[in-house]
Task: structure prediction
Amino acid sequence: MDRHVEAGAGDKVAFHWVGEPGEDARDITYAQLQDEVCQAANALVELGVQTGDRVAIYLPMIPEAVVAMLACARLGAPHTVVFGGFSADALASRVEDCQAKVVITADGGYRRGAPSALKPAVDEARTKTDLIEKVLVVRRTGQDVAWDDNVDVWWDGAVGSASTEHACEFFDAEHPLYVMYTSGSTGTPKGILHTTGGYLVGAAYTHWGIFDLKPESDVYWCTADIGWVTGHSYMVYGPLANQATSVMYEGVPDSPHKGRWWEIIEKYKVSIFYTAPTAIRTFMKWGDDIPAQHDMSSLRLLGSVGEPINPEAYIWYRETIGGGRAPVVDTWWQTETGSIMISPLPGVTAAKPGSAMRAIPGIVADVVNDEGESVPDGSGGYLVIKEPWPSMLSTLWGDDQRFKDTYWSRWKGMYFAGDGAKKDIDGDVWVLGRVDDVMNVSGHRLSTTEIESALVSHPKVAEAAVVGATDEMTGQAVCAYVILREAAGDGGADIVTELRNHVAHEIGAIAKPRQIMIVPELPKTRSGKIMRRLLRDVAENREIGDVTTLTDDSVMKLIAQGAAASAED
Ligand code: PRX
Result:
């Protein structure tokens, strides 16, 4: 920001911000953004934030979210952005893990045409942790909020009255920039730590190279929420480092109508568009006549991220949204990698629908077998990265050992991504999905064990097993098998709804199981391990696979019957 303003680009639009209600859309120039960020940095200092302190950000998709992130970066106070859809519990556990002392939130945000509250979740989180000293509250919806004068501070007052002068501080390249929590194989989310220098190099280089960005003429739109890594690298840090003009949209794709995104593309003449396969599949279902009502001839490049894109969705995206002109870049990366690792390069790679193709220049990725040996073309194995890269995670916040164990212990000198992949006969990479206990639902990472723990924390539940089953719309869907405690009887007529709501309360609505099956037993091996493979067979209505390692194979019959009964319900 400071560089761009100094270079004379202060009047350039950094964001065309579009609120869900629409009438309050506004453009924010680089100079305005700089002023607001300086004000917010000064306000944070007033609230006691110093270099090295952690600040949690729990905001809807409003400009203040970007301002808050950059204000933290400016002070060298690592931010941790928590997705606004996460629960009070999830917020509190992240605050506890990284010991954040300030939370920046809003009264609420707009979703599906109505204000939805956020501040109450922060109030609830404060009952679970006493670390939060100050809560800075943006007034977005005008909803009534509970107020604690000792803790709560209105953004309007504190930021609005602060000086726009703030000298940018300089930090070592390895100074922590942010912590982003993501699901791992075990119950507690991992705090992925990204540092300043390398991360910015990775985000800026890939945003420029893979999206073929021409900052002077492009209008770029990444639809990700700021609460995920894609929102960090490709809505905030990459585009702003490259002096891009971006669109930022607050709401959902179908409010007030199903053509909202295409209307925005038409209005702002968006030329580069980056979204997730799950959204593309949803639009496909809604029908071609909706995008056909809009002039989207400005689009020249399309991107996909978050999960494997099925060839039908890829072709629909390219033809119906991109008019057959715009190449599609299917970008593979992770919260941990910080920036795109495997992707076609537009105008260079002859892409194949469904393949992320090759590692980008500078990245050394491979597919290896159990022994860590590179597999020949035409074979499958595990996806690894074999050389360091600029935006690699530094560690897991407060847990170096888990960092080593998770990513670096399987094969010497290789980063294990947790994904299965195959190389086709041309050596191009097809990512097949996670090989660990992590699910991918609508491009969001969810841990099976985390949802199991949430279920088991319900007083009526004795045991739970969760699997990700293939789902046409969301890629995978959460399916849970639950054994009730004896004292709970049959759990009552609303037990399934009760448990689904409980998971939403513990983690967030995105983690709600699609299906919960009440079963009498779970299939276990002789060593007591739950055989998820078999549960996945049931959830996907497949013939049940090999049961020879089960202690008691009649269990599967009972489960299949239980599942059928639950499905009828
Ligand atoms: O399984 C891969 C899948 O998403 C995982 C990373 O999730 P997360 O850290 O939440 O980051 C999402 C946004 C980068 C990966 O391990 N994934 C991501 N992109 C793709 C993908 N799978 C296939 N193709 C992709 N393009």
About this structure: The radius of gyration is 24 Å. The first helix runs from residue 2 to 9. Residues 182, 229-230, 305-308, 330-335, 356, 417-419, 431, 433-434, 440, 445 surround adenosine-5'-monophosphate-propyl ester (CB under 6 Å).
